[in-house]
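Quick sanity check, Chitin-binding type-2 domain-containing protein:
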Amino acid sequence: MSFDDDKIDRPAWTLFFEGTLYRRYLRYLKHHDLSQMLNNGTTLPCNYKTPIQPPILTHETSWYSPPKFQTDDDEMPPPYHPRSVSVSSERSQRDMDYKKIRNRTRFLVCLGITFIALTAAIVALVIHYFYIATQKEIIESGQNFIHISGNFTANETLAILQDNNTNIIKEKYITDLRDAEHELKFTSPAKPIGKGSFWKNEPTSTTTTKKPKLVLIPPTPTEETVEWYPSSPSPPTIEPVLISDVETAIGKKQATFSCIIQTNKWDSVYLKGKTIKLNFTKSHKTIASGFLPRQTYDYGFKLMDGSNMTKLTLKVLIQDVQCEDEDDFVCGFKDNLTTTEKHGKLIVQRKPSTSIKMKSPVGIIEGQVVEIEATWKGGYPTPIGNITWLYSDDEGGNLTDAPQTFKAADLSWRMKIREDSCKTYINSIVKFKPTLEMNNTILYAVSSFDGVQAGTEHILVIPENYCDEKTGDAYKPHPYTCKKFVRCRPDRMDVYECPKNTCFMEDVSQCDLLNYE
């Protein structure tokens, strides 16, 4: 191979491609597939016809542009393809995959530990809640554990327990009898304002929706009963929260609702209603909200007798009681993670009204069904009495016992409670078809509560043929009073009432002040 030295215009290191070593490398490439060796990472078996192995290239080899010359050998080099092979990039990829796997493993381990810790905390809270609830139930139930000292046989111990149960049954029996006496309330109906005394004062009982109580009958003691162990009074159970329902009435000058906390283990105490909120902290700081101008609050401490325990009392003071003061209260205290509370009500009562209002049609015509309604505010929240219908004629007596006159009368009764205004409305309706025999009869709606003025209705029946002699559209006076008049139409009769202090004048067919009776 010969070159013109004057025409050489290239770096000296390119002379490598003129030597024998480069020719051997070309022959090696001709008989070997380096792409498979680089991709698979293994060395393929060499062609036995190749006498010399090529040099091994490590790490990275940068390829430069091929020299611009031709060899004098008849062998032509293969086409040149620039290539960049990086072994370190493969290692970097493996390192990145390893780091990803390691980070994922750490995340899963941390997530598992967090889940286990959270589950343990929930289980601990549930156990703690049931433990507190059980302790609270035991405290509220006031159970006394009986300890019998000394050496007794099995029969003696059984006798002692039976004697203790007998005392408990006796106390329960007496308490139930006292409660049973207050279940029935008897009242007598008041006489209506009017002449005649034609009804009987019979006691009536107020119905109740309470479930009947089970009265335990104590065993009859015999002479052979032996007290093996003297009974000793058990120490009283201290309730941590004392609250009870309070009853008051509309118009009362002052009402007080209070709650007592009997424990030293509290961080904050509260008394809450629908709008009223009163909080008392350990540092004797009060936070109050929702109070009306008529409502205030108060609190006080007192040392309980025979102990070092303090008693905290929270009070809500109400002036000039109104219906809106009725409320459901919750009183309790908080100690760390536990809360103890009880409920109580402030019940606002309303006295029954002093009279019964009547509602009836203007005219009562023979043969046409009539409804007469009596309405009475019977007291709130529980009505004190009911309405009874009476009538007065030649016989007189209770309307439901009338033999002939009101035999077909239909009586209905309903009650409506308005909690927003603290009123209870009692409505009673009597429905009947009037006859001429009922004329000039007086109906009374009487309350079973004393001191209530009865409602009265004077039955004046217009005969059904009263307008037969009239033709067309005509006016006639009422047959029994001048304060009403009848308008006779071709198909019916209409009854109207004259204005106050007027009477119907037939000659002018209108109501007038003249000749007022």
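Posting the structure with no commentary besides this: DSSP finds four helices and 27 strands in the chain.
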